[in-house]
Amino acid sequence: MLELPARGTTDHGNNYLAPLRIDRKKIIFFSIFSLAFLLSGLITLITLDILPYRMGLASLLAIPLLLIYGIKFDKVTIAFILLAALILLSGLINNTPIISILLFFRIPIFAYLIYRLVQVYISQDNITKVIKICVLIGLIQLPIIVSQQLIYERLPISIKNKIILIDFDFGTFNFKGDSAMGFFLIMLIAFLLFDTKRNYIIKYKWFVVLWFTLTILVANSELNKFIVLSIWGIFLLRYLNIRTIMLVIIVFTIIAGGLFASGMLNETIDEFVFSVVNNISIDERKQEAFLAGNYGRQSAIAYYLNQGVTWFGDGPGKYFDVLSKTRLRGNTGHIFTFYSELGLLGLLSSYFIFFLIAFPSKNGRMKADLMRIVILFSVIILSVTAQVMNDISIFLIYCIILSTLLIPPKRKEPQLNGGNILARSV
Question: What residues form DSSP beta bridges with 320?
Fold first, then answer.
């Protein structure tokens, strides 16, 4: 008599009726990943006149992982708890309304959920795939931001009233998120330039790095341009020999000299000098505008330098209404928000979190290399203009790139002719 194979097996012994395994970690990770790096800008444009979209809420999708895998009380988690304590202390000292304290807690909560998400999902088995997907996302940003810049004038008035041309180059990132998009590329550039033991996973490395650099230079985030040029400067000083550096300087001098002689740089230099002088000479009108909630980086620096040190700030949520997105002071960057509302202690505790993520320790030994130093330097510089802890796309790529330590290092191969680093092809 013909016997049917047992349930869950074929006549070859293979499973065919076994239930499909749902990888909850993978679904949650890539849902947040997609919202942070691919979909938020589009969602915002679609819902602009319907319902305000808050990308930070996407981090709440990681709560099930927190419930399943719990909280791991490592050094980073303890640093988050310290920040939470300082938020409460600042609120108590300044008699801050409880609603303002609770709303400010969104920043460490969102950031911690992202940190724990990466900690739970990223492993040696999938980190290479995640980095390769990040590189693919990075490669499509340049054509997209160029297209955005070209079509801006054709946009409906309702959109143009909410975003100016200089901010309409966010690629696939969140609305007005050009700084986050640039930082995403900077993290990948740092990995490809400095982690020589693990960047072998990306083919055509030099093309990718130059493409990403060009993308940042085409975009409108001036601070990201400064960061990427600084990174290239560090790379040249670290890896190139004196002869190559001198050759670069000579070629640059010849090109610059030719441009000077032709008069092509005169207008650019005049505009730069005017901008510097204008920014240094901050008048009372600009100060008043800053105190009224208008953006002004130079005004903010001048104001806080003249106020003396504040250790606990003026209270969480003092100068920004989260619900209405109304600013009572022009604090647009992480450094100004945390310093003014939580004081110097709150600001330093937030940077301490970034430091511990960048330099993990194992068996009493801290993992420190040039790539991690460059990455920490980049996020601190960006914090002058961007909310680096509150923007989940910034915090997510920061945590992902610093997880590349899981990639098995490439075995050293015999080097020919001195092993010139620029001659290596990955």
Answer: 327
Same domain, 327 and 395: no
Tokens of 178: 């050009």
Diameter over CA atoms, the chain? 98
What is the rounded (10 degree) CA torsion for 255, 256, 258, 263? 150
The pLDDT tens digits of the residues spanning 333-354 come to 999 999 999 999 999 999 999 9
SS percent in the chain: helix, strand, coil, step 5: 65, 0, 35
pTM here is 0.84
**Among the listed residues 149, 92, 131, the one whose alpha carbon sits nearest the alpha carbon of residue 313:** 92
Task: Note down the domain range covering 297.
Answer: 285-384
- Measured in degrees and rounded to the nearest 5, phi and psi for residue 326 equal -95, 130
Beta carbons of 216 and 224 less than 8 angstroms apart: yes
Distance, in Å, from the CA atom of 287 to the CA atom of 295, rounded to the nearest integer, reads: 10
Which stretches of 201-265 are DSSP H helices? Answer: 205-218, 222-239, 242-262
Structure tokens belonging to residue 288: 């008043």
Q: Which residue has the tokens 């319907």?
A: 50
Do 333 and 211 share a domain, yes or no? Answer: no
CA dist 222 → 180, 219, 233, 386 (Å)? 12, 8, 17, 12
Residues 196, 146 within the same domain: yes
Buried b (16+ CB within 10 A) or exposed e, 251-275: eeeeeeeeeeeeeeeeeeeeeeeee
CA angle 164, 169, 174 (to 5 degrees): 95
| Buried/exposed 389-400: b ≥16 CB within 10 Å, e otherwise | bbbbbbbbbbbb
Contact between residue 103 and residue 377 where contact means Cβ atoms under 8 Å apart: no
Instruction: Assess if residue 164 is contained within a domain.
Output: yes
What is the identity of the amino acid at 182? G
Q: How many domains does the chain have?
A: 2
pLDDT of residue 422: 34
Quote the pLDDT of residue 52: 79
Interior angle at CA 122, CA 120 and CA 126, nearest 5: 140
- Give the integer Cα–Cα distance in Å for 111 and 393: 10
One domain for residues 141 and 43: yes
Which tokens is 321 given? 């209404």
Q: What is the mean pLDDT of each run of 10 residues along the chain (426 residues)?
A: 46 53 92 96 85 89 95 96 98 96 97 98 97 98 94 86 87 93 98 95 95 94 93 86 71 66 55 49 68 73 85 94 81 92 97 97 85 97 95 98 95 51 34
> Whole-angstrom Cα distance, residue 73 to residue 78?
6
